[in-house]
Amino acid sequence: MTNIDGIYIDKLVELHGSPFFVVSARTLRENIKTFREAFSKKYPKVKVAYSYKTNYISGVLKIIHKEEIWAEVASGFEYDLARALEVQGESVVFNGPYKKREELEKALKEGALINADHLDEIKLLEEIASELGRTVDIGIRINTDVGIHQLPDRFGFNLESGDAIQIVRRCVEKKLLRIAAIHIHLTSYIIEPESVENTTPAKRIKLIWPKSSDMYRMAANKVARFAEEIREKFGLNMKYVDVGGGFPNVDFLTPYVEAVVEPIVKGFKGDLPILILEPGRAIVSNAIHLITTVVGVKEFPNGERGVIVDAGVNILPTSFWRWQEIEHLTKPESSLKEETIVYGPLCLQTDIIGKAMLPELGAGDKLVIKNVGAYNISQSSTFIFPRPAIVLIEDEQVRVLRRVEAVDDVFLFGNF
Ligand SMILES: Cc1ncc(COP(=O)(O)O)c(C=O)c1O
Fold it and tell me: Which of 184-193, 195-204, 232-241 has the least mean pLDDT?
């Protein structure tokens, strides 16, 4: 990979130093178009709400919202960011397990769809509705068994235990909240049950991505059945069904579209709800790459080869779950390759970003860490090194979305 959308990466290194993230506006737009079309071809009422936490660089969000995509936010902080980017309240889905009272109040007044996570949040919403003197529409997040061994799922109200239907009953009886949406999100990181030893969650976390489309079919079937139960028991029709995110790369969407749409069309018969989808990774993952430079080569006593590069786990935290895809910037694919451990620059044994087949390397060689747009920039930290520049390629122009952080950007001197 020597160029991105017609711009030579070597030239970018001369201008921006190393490391830096490169965003392709073209790939972002193509992903959005393909994602939306894949669902819209099979279902008449589709709304795509991009999951902010996946990557909320404002330059990226602006491109996404220009394509009339809603915002899916998981905190008041993300909600305010969406509003600062002039996303209307009615185009925001507000999720997450902790929303402050004043944030809920503001979002309700501005017409956002709030998906409640737990009973205490329902109680706050009831108080607000009572003060407003009207019944307000909300959604509830549910969780259900789709064959993943993760119990309990910490988000939402459980279907099998009857928790979910109990909450609907409470809302119907109190007449303060009207359930208008059922929300589910099949998580990509699961925590395996504890084994004999009392291991910490981090040691039990397993990444399941891409997930099987069967899980989506099972979830969509259960959501449709739950909606039917609510209609029969309480005469309530869902305005929205929100199936969350977790979708694979847009080239592999077809079985997922069928798995979600078929049970909903069948279950809801003529009265179809608006289908909300909350993709994150599928939109940004392959639209962003990281350019890094080799700063040293190591030969270990056991014969293994390692290199140190100038980008570590502080800016690529997903390396803890999965090795990154790494390529040499200029050497041809056909070059003789050797397995190489790629270490970051942090003074930390676990700063390893991948193990890849790479050609012979020397200090100064440039590598491309591919498809790193999801969950890296938003989770990155200034641990030992600052966060790097982010540049955008759009219509063959290059623009800096964020410059490399300096000490003054990170630390507040003066009164402290
Ligand atoms: C509620 C919710 N929706 C959507 C997403 C986006 O998931 P993905 O990036 O896997 O599409 C997440 C991510 O964890 C989420 O928690």
Answer: 195-204
Q: Ligand 1 pocket: which of 35, 47, 53 to mutate (most atoms <8 Å of CB)?
A: 53
Note whether 208 and 127 are same-domain residues. Answer: yes
DSSP string, 199-213: --HHHHEEE--SPPH
**HSE-up of residue 191 (Cα within 13 Å, Cβ side):** 11
Which tokens in the block code for residue 252?
A: 């592999």
Segments in 7-156 forming alpha helices (H): 9-16, 25-40, 58-66, 76-84, 101-109, 119-132
Residues 6+ apart with CB under 8 A from 415: none
With a 6 Å cutoff on the Cβ, whether 373 touches ligand 1 is: no
Is any ligand 1 atom within 6 A of the Cβ of residue 188? yes
Q: What is the tens place of the pLDDT at every residue in 271-287?
A: 899 999 999 999 999 99
At 352, is the secondary structure helix, strand, or coil?
Answer: strand
DSSP 153: -
Are 133 and 231 contained in the same domain?
yes
User: Atom 14 of ligand 1 has which residue's CA nearest to it?
Assistant: 187
Give the H or E element holding residue 219.
Answer: helix 213-234
**Spacing of C-alpha 116 from chain mean position:** 19
- How is 258-271 classified by DSSP, letter by letter? HHHHHHHHHHHTTS
If one counts the domains in the chain, the total is 2
67 is in which domain, residue-wise?
56-279
Cβ(281) – ligand 1 distance below 6 Å: yes
pTM of the model: 0.96
